[in-house]
Fold these 4 entries.
Entry 1:
Amino acid sequence: MPLWGGIEAGGTKFVCAIAGDDGELLAETGFPTSTPEHTIGRAIEFFQQQQSEPPAAIGISSFGPVDLRPTSPTFGYITTTPKPGWANVEVVGRIRRAFDIPVGFDTDVNGAALGEYRWGAAQGLDTFVYLTIGTGLGGGGLVNGKLMHGLIHPEMGHIRIPHDLDQDPFAGSCPFHGDCLEGLAAGPALEARWGQRAETLPLDHPVWELEANYLALGLVNLICILSPQRIILGGGVMQQAHLFPLIRDRVQQLLNDYLKTPTILEHLDEYIVPPGLGDRAGVKGAIALAQQSTGFLR
Ligand code: ADP
Ligand code: ZN
């Protein structure tokens, strides 16, 4: 049986895993993201230590922005990230030189979306969005059965949403845009606005109503543009499961009965959902990227 390798390359930590065809993880390790040299080196060591043979392919789902154009001289690089030491860093080439096997590469959120499509909450769908609300806020997904790429790749976290400065005077934390969706609603924005990390804020704190409002504003834009059949919300901030009903109610209000489909009018609890793979969406997504890279899976 061929084994597949996956690297979830996050800005905070890397997770590497080996899995069989069914995506079940057979070995897994995680370590903090330090320098590119050291971090990618540790990933290579992990796969070297697993078996005598390298995996059939390795999939990498990476924080970004990344260069996904196969014809580009910097294909497989992390490009303009503000993360110190990681701008213009080659990722795919380093792995390919170490193992000489196919390497699949995509954004962290497209990877997670592919994992959810294969084994999680998006099975059987052809158009859906996976959004993470964590250190950053980003989205990926499939449209008509294909991962979204286009010009670069979607940057769903950097959309602009209404920001009522009387209600919320916080200027926003995005280094590029201030109060884009990520600048208002990702984890670091919550920490900067309230002076403590989101996970320490109590349930009755005004943070959650405001957060649900911003996320719902983002979601109605995505719903109106992409017509997704489902929206999956992952990432650290969404560990606050009580956000789901708040977001669904606000989406309902904002859409105001305009989209006359039972999915939105009656089944919003099956429409805006947590990842079916839980916190394994990212690493299993990387495995799915490996399988896709050899044509084993479309
Ligand atoms: P990353 O995006 O770096 O991969 P996470 O998805 O865990 O990692 O996101 C980290 C962010 O999510 C931090 O800003 C943190 O404060 C926030 N966060 C993590 N866990 C929780 C939680 N249980 N409740 C609310 N916020 C959380
Ligand atoms: Zn932004």
Entry 2:
Amino acid sequence: MTAAGQNLRIDPDRLWDSLMEMAKIGPGVAGGNNRQTLTDADAEGRALFKSWCDAAGLETGVDKLGNMFATRAGTDAEADPVYVGSHLDTQPTGGKYDGVLGVLGGLELIRTLNDLNIRTKHPIVVTNWTNEEGTRFAPAMLASGVFAGVHTQDWAEAKTDAKGARFGDELDRIGWRGEEEVGARKDRMHAFFELHIEQGPILEAEGKEIGVVTHGQGLSWTQVTVTGKESHTGSTPMLMRKNAGLAMARLLIEVEEIALSHAPHAVGAAGHIEVHPNSRNVIPGRAVFTVDFRSPDLAVIEDMEAKLAQAAERIAGEMDMEIELEKVGGFDPVAFDEGCVTAVRTAAERLGYSHMDIISGAGHDACWINRVAPTAMIMCPCVDGLSHNEAEEITKDWACAGADVLLHAVLETAEVVS
Ligand code: HGY
Ligand code: MN
Ligand code: MN
């Protein structure tokens, strides 16, 4: 096996042009993207990615949940492939780089190997995981979770969006249900590497180009349904009201205080909030919201969930209302594979990029794939740590440093033959 030359780099302009080309699909209203999973825009983005994979000579397989696998053959057809990739779906007010950098950074890796006719022993597979964001269909990382054996395919397909559309029906509607059994590949993965923007402020603040992701924090999503009583905002005396919106507000303050009680690492908020009937002159009879708690420590997550349940019970009693809690998503904190993490760190050192170990604040498909294959992540900074916002920005240098490290870590693992 020959080591990849220290000067080996990806093509910065080609990577950046691909990112900008993909960003034209499912544009947002403020410079970012709204390419939500299983929408027509998602289908268009998938088609563009596949056309690029075809042009790069890759064989693209699709499984029954739309996960895409574009393979570059290795010299040893029996060798388990090295997988790279992330997700092309975005938040409703998403950025141009969240997920996309990992998919197109993987494609750029392939294009670079093709340019130089570098052959590896292990095949290399570029992946696009369906519905990483979990914004249209909860939970997040849905299809990679089924692939890793955490959820069943039926459970995923039955998920509905805010308008009642079923995941499985939408997948068929956009024509991206493949033939492969979901997870059929999982016992034959040599490794998985995911390049992703940090989505937080640490790397930029520390002046580091590369995050060597050693762990991912755990996540808990609890959907809270408060049932009060709709009535007239003008003629209902204050003491006669059952204001579900008020109970929700009290609980949201509790969520903030519960997370702060586990400072500095725990976080908590509710990003999904609905009140019914959401009319200006009706006391809300129902409030539905999802509490997102996260921490690197599982015991802290469990304590925050318990404290939320206690607060809900207390407030339900004080306000004579019904408050139901349902766990709708979550995963334990993950420790990534030491061998793969070392390959990332060694690549950054060999390439001379400043780097630091980091724990991922956001969830990623890698958090599930880590259960079935040796897995690690590479992070690049983002401007002001901003993500899940159309103003999400990264520099071209950061994107290319991350893709260079991905290239070298993968070549180290896939074994360069010539
Ligand atoms: O929720 C997350 O952390 C990821 O962005 N889906
Ligand atoms: Mn992401
Ligand atoms: Mn995201």
Entry 3:
Amino acid sequence: MTHLMNTYNRLPIAFTHGKGARLYDEQGNEYLDALAGIAVNGLGHAHPRLTAALTEQVSRLIHTSNVYRVREQETLADRICALSGMQEVFFANSGSEANEAALKLVRFLGYKRGIEAQTIVMERAWHGRTLATLAATGSDKARKGFDPFPTGFVSVRYNDIDAVQRAGDADSRVAAVWLEVLQGEGGIYVADLDYVRALRRLCDDRGWLLMIDEVQSGIGRTGKWFAHQWAGIKPDVMTLAKGLGSGVPVGACVAAGPAAGVFGPGNHGTTFGGGPLAMRSGIETLEIIEKERLMENAVAQGDLIIGGLKRRLAAVRGVTQIRGMGLMIGIELDRPCGELVRQALDAGLLINVTHDNVIRMLPPLILSAEEAELIVERLAPLIVALLRSQSDVNSKTTAKAA
Ligand code: PLP
């Protein structure tokens, strides 16, 4: 028993330290980390350069507040704008908060235009756990019991441009379209790049903001700084978190074009957001990703993992699809497979299952080729065994019934 609120089904394990893509538990057992703190620890654990920079920062300055200029904040905003081609940044402390800022921005733009702005969102989307981001999130399970929600959202089918067009035709107050280029929590569904480009054109034609949630897919994870860059487009609003701080909490709402200059002093704010420690972590993270060519590595190791999994699993009955981009990888089965998380843990591998039947892996960007192969070696037999044992049970039950 602990005094923690019962919000998580935690695995019965605690880690004491990590190094690279490895974590060590209280008994000294080693695990290969294919989850990276849910896409947060892109640099792995205890990266020497990040450790040194954070230690230096902590010894000098952790927090001052947004009452004053924060030089590290200005530097990180410059870097993010240079990498994205966008214009301005509001720093928050998490993905949900970055998304709240984005939603407030749409509403405030609507207010200035004299409309109650509506945002088109996607089925299976995941944008966070605050009330507004949950209202925009397409998970009935996460939303259940939390009515009443803030209004202002229209949900449409993902990857379906006609559905977006129809929703826009039906309501003249639509002011924005919001999506993940890869749906992470929703089950690693990847949008067609043509669809993303068509959305850009549609938003331009109709004067809507194109908003992209890169909280999970951003900061090099798919092999580009931001997943939407694979489509060669630029959003008006982009949100970041997770990998940006390498574990130090940080979120960012980035704006460009019609979305820039919307807020003035007093329209939005935060006590902690953009503090020197989180900003330093962001600055170092981006520099390390660039210097160590980690985006190229994400593509190479992602290809190794997906290729290896396909070789060993593609013909196995019960494996529906193996998909992903870079180091954002999903294996969809035709049945729930939550128990695999515990089985993988026992085999020394940290993974996750989302949407009940999608095994999800988000390894650190520093993963080596040997580690990529080890992931496949440890995971593939577990999936085969799970599917076989359940087929055996099914055929025995059928035989009995007959
Ligand atoms: N947006 C996306 C795409 C996410 O994957 C998540 C978290 O999983 C969030 C937003 C919410 O981020 P946070 O948990 O930091 O509030």
Entry 4:
Amino acid sequence: MTISIRKITSAITLTALAVIFAIYNAQAQNGLTLWYNKPAKTWTEALPVGNGRIGAMIFGDPTKELIQLNEATFWSGGPVKRNVNPNAANALAKTREALLKEDYENANKMVTGMQGVYTQSYLPLADLNLKQDVGTTNVEAYKRTLSVENSVATITFRAAGIIYTREIIATFPDKAIIIHLTADKPGKININAGLSSLVKYTVEPINQDELLLKAKAPAQVDPNYVNYNAEPVKYADSTNCRGMRAALQIKAIALHGTVSNGKEGLAVKNADEVTLYICAATSFNGFDKCPDSDGKNELAICDQFTQAAAKKNWQQLYKAHLADYQSLFNRVKINLGKTGTSQELLPTDKRLLAFSKGAVDPQFEALFYQYGRYLLISSSRPGGPPANLQGIWNNLLRAPWSSNYTININTQMNYWPAATTNLQELEYPLFDFIKNLSVTGYNTAHDFYHMQGWVAHHNTDIWAISNPVGDLGKGDPKWANWYMGAPWLCRHLFERYLFSKDESFLKQAYPVMKGAAEFLVDFLVEDKNGYLVTSPSFSPENDFIDDHGKEGNTSIATTMDMSIIRDHFRNCIEASEALHTDVAFRNLLKTKLAKLYPLHVGHKGNLQEWYKDWEDVDPHHRHVSQLFGLHPGREISPLTTPEYAAASRKTLELRGDAGTGWSLAWKINFWARLLDGDHAYKLLRDLMRDLSISNGGGLYPNLFDAHPPFQIDGNFGATSGITEMLLQSQLGELQLLPALPKAWQNGSVSGLKARGAYTVAINWEKGRLKTGNIYAEKGGKCIIRTQNPILVKGISASSVASKGGYLTSFTARQGSTYQINVL
Ligand code: FUC
């Protein structure tokens, strides 16, 4: 459907259209709006809203609206079973034996003997089919928008001379999705709302104005890449410990007109205005409780949410929603430059295409940056589960990779922008989840390896499964058997402390961090040169060619393993120092740290990925795991370890720029850490390519990141990467504009967070820092690194020339703001 100007005949119509266009343009020009002149045909054109728990994808058809709904806790299965593979420890011994003999082929076979069961799947909950009778099929002046600033989706169109509007929000304070339908003439809203689901469900009317969908999750859903079972989706479970229940309720309140409940759902006739209240709840009662027999009363909860929300009208709900959403969203403002409004006047899908073909559009880059923050606010709220592979949006019963948690990069990437872009509380779901995982992870360490501490492998789910997946030997070890999930996740706990300096948080986190270190202490063995190494070891999901020309993936001491362990031991040591606790364990870690197999520069000048200087089977592999120390770690930097930074650069050059969505996103972060803003910017543009003309990762019309398929990590990784270009703090100093690309000559950003509990605002002109503001929440020694000397107002310290710029240090007072000016 497109706007047909020819059909406009009367002057009144023209006036009405002028008003609509004025509204549209005002919306488009605020810069932070996605907009389209046609409804979505596919799911990746539909627009996402979410309150961290309920998610909706809005297609926006004028007369046949489809709103696809999710609830974040609705997963298949139930709590993990213990000791699913009693032979694992034996297989570990055999794998190690083979590795000692450098028999990688045999090790690769043996290691599969350690595998357990696959994770469960994140499920779609329901579809709301909303038919709207507008008396004609001839619709004009259609527009569909998503305001990232206000977190509201709007659909407007004109039919038979009447302007219809549909506004949709997912409100966190009122725990509901709200659809508000209006028309510019009274008595014109005629709708029919029906519900359906892909899981087992029933729909029943409640009174005249409500509809209730009761759903039952399968007891087991195989991953979409496991296709050897006759019944990949199973409902039966005799124990009642699998198969969650869910409820979804919809209530209609109309201004004038009638509401009735018939065979086809809720019907509203001749109303002036209608508000639909959609609430959902599941019986999920924690990762370790049977979701059926010990489940929560989802019907009572859902009804309570619905009745409470229905006490408020649209205006009240919207006001509360806006206040809540903007209290998070408005913390960061960004301006990457202006080029007029010509690109903003293009619908977002066309704008994306123009951008992919080279259009200069820094406002679009800023919109995409803020869209990442929008998606995090919409998919991860305290009290709920962490954002999964698709955030909270999934329309498939067997979603790609089960839409689960992949913790060899993807889940962590989801949370890279949380602290830096001032959304720290949105990471609480991840912290809670890590705690759960540490519980099952203790069991797995004990049952599978007979070791202490806790371990997690590359995949997990809402039940916090921690075993190596693979269905008892059928998975490829290069992904299934990787077991560094725990220490990598724990770096998020320690980073929370670094960003906040909150010792009470660290006190709670420390035992979990320590548990992950205890497993590693047990797991490490000595190689023939006396180095401590991991055995077996993998470099996520890559293969090597060994000394004898054989391909393999199971070896010892990959660079990623050793880098993660070094990082984790250092974090634990610093944490115990900050807490003045656990001296004996701290000293043990210091001894171990000194003996860990170090980084190596390979014969190509690259950072070696494997224990030996082997070739990769796929030199352009999407994972660049050997650069963990560069990002997200802090071991490598051009400022502190120039030789490893140069090797990292070489590694990136050899890998090439191409990649899946999240791979491109990681590379933005890598290049920013290498202080190469132009290369980071190039990767950002590569990631922001319209998928239809991209060979690898890219963006869908709704700006969801494409692996492909859709994976939300790329959205979050890109927002993190842009932040890293503007501010870094991993070296204990505030690096202002460390990787500013030439493309962003003039701009500003405010509200970014830095380690040390600082909040930073920066303005730049002609590619050069101009002014800044640093708020020291906790005070302490503040070191600022800039390209040019600066003056800190009220502080006598002067800038001292240092590597690649200037350092300025002073003691910041708690609660003070410092203004800086470039000299
Ligand atoms: C890892 C990646 C894949 C994909 C999957 C969800 O296994 O290697 O590319 O992102 O996670």
